[in-house]
C-alpha cells in the first residue's frame, strides 16, 4: 500500500511539474509580427477596386526595446500619394508580452487626415488588437476601439470612432507578392467608423511571423473596394 501511495505521489509531482513547465514556456514564447531589427523598413502599395495604384507607404521599425520578457517596437508609418507626394507621418507601438502580440489601434489613424488638424487639440483613446502566439484557424479574437476627439479653443469640433470587431482567424494561406512568398494567418474582421455619418465594411488581412501584414483587402457588400500589398523589405 505504501509503495502504491509513493508511486501516485511521484506521478502527481511529475504532472504538476509538467503543467508548470508548459505554462512557463507559454508565458515566455511570443510570436512577433514585425521584423525584430531596428531600422528595418516594410514597403507597401495600395490599389483601388480596379487595381489602380492609389498610393504607397512605408513602415519603419524606429526603435526596439527588450525588457525581460517584454519586446516592444515603435513603428513609424509614412504615407505617399500615387505621385509620390508625402501625405503625413504617424507613430504607433507593437508589443509582445506573456505570449500575446498586440498592436496599438493608433495604427489605423490616417496620417493625411491627422495632419489637417495639426493646429487643433487632439485627444486619442485606444486599446490594442491582440494576436495570441497559439493562434489557430477558427479562433475568435478580441475587438479594438479607437476614439479621436478634436477641439479648438475649448470647443469640440468632432469625434471619430473606429471599431474593429468580429475578428476571426479564417485560414492559414501562402501569399505571394513582389516582396516574396509568405506563410500567413488570414484574419477577417468588420470595421465600423462613426463621425458625421456611420460607415461599415469588411476586411481581410494576412499576417506573417517576423514580417507583419503582407496583404489587406476591404469589401463592401461582398465587393472588393481596395487592397494593400507588401512590395519590399529592407533590413539594416
Task: List the topology elements.
Layout: H1 2-28, E1 41-48, E2 53-67, E3 70-81, E4 86-97, E5 100-104, H2 111-115, E6 121-126, E7 128-132, E8 140-141, E9 144-152, E10 155-177, E11 180-194, E12 198-208, E13 212-220, E14 223-234
Antiparallel strand pairs: 1-2, 1-14, 2-3, 3-4, 4-5, 5-7, 6-9, 8-10, 9-10, 10-11, 11-12, 12-13, 13-14
Summarize the structure.
It is built from 2 helices and 14 strands; from the N terminus they run H-E-E-E-E-E-H-E-E-E-E-E-E-E-E-E. With 236 residues, it is mainly beta.
- The overall average pLDDT, rounded, is 84
Q: What's the β-strand tally?
A: 14
Level-2 CATH architecture:
Beta Barrel
Q: Output the structural class.
A: mainly beta
Strand content: over 45%
Poorly predicted runs of 5 or more residues = 1-28
Oligomer description: single chain
Mind telling me the CATH class?
Mainly Beta
For the terminal residues, how far apart are their CA atoms? Answer: 66 Å
Continuous helix count:
2
Amino acid at each position: 500500500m505504501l509503495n502504491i501511495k509513493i508511486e501516485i505521489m511521484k506521478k502527481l509531482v511529475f504532472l504538476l511539474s509538467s503543467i508548470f513547465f508548459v505554462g512557463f514556456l507559454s508565458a515566455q514564447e511570443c510570436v512577433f509580427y514585425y521584423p525584430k531589427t531596428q531600422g528595418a523598413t516594410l514597403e507597401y502599395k495600395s490599389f483601388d477596386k480596379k487595381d489602380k495604384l492609389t498610393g504607397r507607404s512605408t513602415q519603419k521599425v524606429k526603435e526596439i526595446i527588450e525588457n525581460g520578457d517584454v519586446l516592444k517596437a515603435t513603428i513609424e508609418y509614412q504615407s505617399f500619394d500615387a505621385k509620390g507626394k508625402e501625405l503625413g507621418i504617424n507613430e504607433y507601438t507593437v508589443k509582445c508580452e506573456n505570449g500575446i502580440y498586440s498592436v496599438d489601434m493608433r495604427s489605423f489613424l490616417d496620417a493625411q487626415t491627422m495632419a489637417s488638424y495639426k493646429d487643433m487639440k487632439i485627444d486619442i483613446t485606444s486599446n490594442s488588437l491582440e494576436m495570441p502566439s497559439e493562434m489557430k484557424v477558427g479562433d475568435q479574437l478580441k475587438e479594438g476601439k479607437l476614439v479621436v476627439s478634436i477641439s479648438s479653443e475649448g470647443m469640440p469640433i468632432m469625434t471619430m470612432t473606429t471599431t474593429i470587431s468580429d475578428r476571426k482567424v479564417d485560414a492559414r494561406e501562402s501569399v505571394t507578392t513582389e516582396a516574396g512568398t509568405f506563410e500567413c494567418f488570414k484574419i477577417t474582421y468588420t470595421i465600423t467608423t462613426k463621425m458625421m455619418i456611420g460607415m461599415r465594411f469588411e476586411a481581410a488581412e494576412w499576417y506573417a511571423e517576423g514580417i507583419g501584414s503582407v496583404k489587406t483587402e476591404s469589401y463592401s457588400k461582398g465587393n472588393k473596394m481596395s487592397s494593400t500589398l507588401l512590395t519590399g523589405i529592407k533590413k539594416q
